[in-house]
Write a structure and sequence with these properties.
This protein is α/β, with parallel strands linked by helices. The chain contains 21 helices and nine strands.
Length: 501
Amino acid sequence: MRLQLAQECLRTSVIEERLAAIPLLADSPAPEADYLLTNCVADPAPSVWNRSRDTLLYRHPWLALEAAVPRPVPDSARFAPLSEGWASLRQGIQRVMEENELPLDSPARVLELPAWLPDWVEIAKALGRQRFAVQIEQLQSRVDVQHERQILLAPTYRCNLACSYCYSRGFGDSMPADLSLGDLNYFFSWAATQGIATVLLAGGEPTLYIHLPELLRLASESKITVRLTTNGMYSAAVRELIRQSTIFELVAHYDQEVMASSSDAAERFEQNLRAARSAGIPVILRYTLSESSDSGEWCALMDLAVRLGIEQLNYAFAFQGSAGLNAHVPMQAQVGRPGGHIDITLNQLCADAGRRGLRLHLSKPFPLCTLSVESLRLMLQSGGLRPACVIHHDGYTRNLTINPDLTTFPCNGIPIPGPGIRTVDGIADAGAQCARQIETLLFRPWAEPCRDCALWYRGVCRGACQAENYLQAKQETAAGALTSIHLSSPAGGQRGADHDL
């Protein structure tokens, strides 16, 4: 009855009646409801489309995510729970394209739901609507270049903590303890010629770097923005250095293991962040959820954020590092099982953050199928939903990491040995040398159920952080299952801090 009433209202010329029809479709059966909502992309009234877009997001929250490296979906992967929604939307898009001569602003409207862009482009081309497909692709390419180029610099892999869930153990075993002063000067000269706008300091613990004052001075002279990731356990001298610096942003990782066992550590952490805030440096808190994390643990962190006036909390589940030596949440056991531990944990996390007015940001992707649609909606509203890994963007240089010996990793979590920046023509060359290995990881199902999910093939969900995929690929290579690629990493041993954003 609701569906029929919505159909009748959407046929009228009265905008208010068409607007009133859309809420009736929020929970109506697919695919007809998806078709009617999709058809509003051609509605002459922007308000009608805006409400339809929001209703489509309510029905399919993953539409907010950016699709990366989409591939054709086999018939076997069209009928999983999330795949059914994708197939319904695709049917709706085809009907809309067949029935409408879409208005000029339609491509811009389509762009507002990133995850369905590949379907619009594919269907438009199949129906001979080449111009429409090209318009979408051109608009998308403009969006893709609207970010500043950044690079990650790990000036040291030394650390003053030993977090059980740290993924970067052993990364510095075969490298100098610190980037030399000469190499530091070379790095900033090289970065300036590459058009690098931002340097993200990672590691290890960057505040232990022996030439930190010189690093901050060179960054300022080169007009390169510095974003600092730190565990917050630095000295009073470093605190004053940071206060007087031009650091653009400080991301402070809250180690619950230390904070729970040492009141002195908790006091130093708060004192350091309070000093940065008083100096006008934007501060974001970072938190890694372990298997034992609960509301009591993260509420202490959230209450600290409220006391300091910090508005954003970056979070992620502890994932298995590329050496397999760290504590982690066994996410694979949750794949395809909404309503389990992950679902319950994130619902509570979102609720506790919402009560304090905190904005959430998910730092590492995880399988969307571990959550119910209701939970995905909650995460979207809180800001805690994110797309799959974008390591392949910018010619495989989006996460490029420079090590203390000036060699490169494709990401601060994936230690595939890359060339030193002294030996390459430029950043594009460094990215190209790891492209084949990263592409192999991206096209490798993270868990067996991924093979039966359209969202994995469409690039909306890649399962988890590619560092876990990298470890699995290494293990399979060692067992003789993979022979076409070479994957290697440093031996385990020394620990560093959890410094992904």
